[in-house]
Amino acid sequence: MNIRTVATKPFDDQKPGTSGLRKAVPTFQQPHYLENFIQSIFNSLDNYQGQRLVLGGDGRYYNRTAIQTILKMAAANGVGRVLVGQGGILSTPAASCLIRKYQAFGGIILSASHNPGGPEGDFGVKFNTPNGGPAPANVTEAIFAKSKEISEYKVLEADDINLDQQGEYKLGGMTVEVVDAVEAYADLMASIFDFDAIQKLLSGGFRVVMDSLHAVTGPYAKEILENRLQAPAGTVRNGEPLEDFGGGHPDPNLVYARELVEIMYGDDAPEFGAASDGDGDRNMILGNHFFVTPSDSLAILAANATLVPGYAKGITGVARSMPTSQAADRVAKKLGINCYETPTGWKFFGNLLDAGQVTLCGEESFGTGSNHVREKDGLWAILFWLNIIAKRGQSVEEIVKEHWQTYGRTYYSRHDYEEVAKDPANELMDQLRSRLSSFPGQQFHGYEVDLADDFSYKDPIDGSVAEKQGIRLVFKDGSRLVFRLSGTGTQGATLRVYLERYEGDQSKQNEDTQTALADLIQIAHEIAEIKKFTGRDEPSVIT
Ligand code: VG1
Ligand code: CO
Fold first, then answer.
1. Is the pTM of this model over 0.90?
2. Mind listing the pLDDT tens digit for each residue in 493-514?
3. Which domains does the chain have, with CATH numbers?
4. What are phi and psi of 407, to 5 degrees?
5. 3-state secondary structure (DSSP) of residue 26
6. Residue 22, ligand 1, Cβ within 6 A
7. Would you say the CB of residue 324 lies under 6 angstroms from ligand 1?
């Protein structure tokens, strides 16, 4: 067994963001760049020697190369056994499922999620802990600290493993197990949802279109929807994972999943449409000519959870990220269950889920999930919706509108200003921050500010504190404006403006969202001087 120790120097930009280390592919292709980060992960951990690791990615460009490197480094660093998805494929929720099922010490997931792929696109590395969830801040900080002082890494000299053939391989003293990427995850879904009821729905003329956007969910969706639930072949579109996602942007929203949106808003539209992102943790839900906002989706899943066998006994609580609308809070209140508001990013839900404080979690960014894994989960959300529809016998639109009648409607939108210059974007945030104490009591277009702060969160389980998580203006009527800079982009800065307004009056619940939010949009422009700092009149993406 020949272990090579390679001398290296630190890179100064290996600080993980909202969801792992995300950089352009050419950055990862620099000599030692990937190796430094992987070695820093091992250097930050204790007692993993001889233990299990889960490894896989969303199939994007550089996935296979990186997997071979990581396997050889894991072998050289004393890992006992690595479970790799066949073809190097594992969706983020499937990786979380395997970590939990096989009690691995962690997982390395290769993905830049919703960011485009290909040689000029993005790549990413996420480290997940034994609970199956994204590493919390203390872990990512420890990795970052190691990355700043690294001087060498270890790698085994060996041939590449055949990732396409299931089975066991030896790499030095380590065993590599190439496993079916889909089976354990599909079994988990079957254990949660009423597959018989869904199958009956699908065989009764209820038409479903699932767009995998040439990203990782293709094989999962085909196995679950077309094989196990016997939806007609072709239900899953763009189901072949491609290294560049077919040139698309694997982000399931009304802008980037245009093909699906055209089908669902076209003549003879199917009853249900869904899409998922690069790594399979996001979801978009559409009905016939109808879009479900992710914030509403979380609230509706919570309100209907007992229709799903896996949650038949009820849910203990709901958590949502701060920018996510307060629709779920109203359901929690009515059900008398816990309700938490966390910073953006799935890592903040882990402790609450582990402690049993919440069962469902969600983010406005098309992410929903539960305690079945420790990641958000796109196909799980889609199956949840199908299960609810099968039980209620109503359309997507009917279910949502009935929800609004019961709980009120929360008009909600996010405006993204992508790839703007970094320094002025930071200035925009700084100038808002500096004026926070002056906002309360001020009136803007008839909205009076009740509270203005830079959101900070104290984890109720371990007491850790996360500061500067987004600027929040809450108005007297409960409407909100939130400003954040993205922690997942790789070009310049992305300003996210989140807008929310509650409408309890049933006769006013059918307005167009942007129209209903027009005053708040105007206020956002005025107080943040968006044009001045970004040079843009309009957002690049509205969701
Ligand atoms: C975005 C979303 C956030 C999500 C994160 C990771 O982060 O806003 O809600 O958790 O992406 O999603 P940011 O910092 O760019 O706003 V994904 O599907 O990367 O794993
Ligand atoms: Co994702």
1. yes
2. 999 999 999 988 888 988 999 9
3. 3-180 (3.40.120.10), 185-407 (3.40.120.10), 409-542 (3.30.310.50)
4. -110, -10
5. helix
6. no
7. no
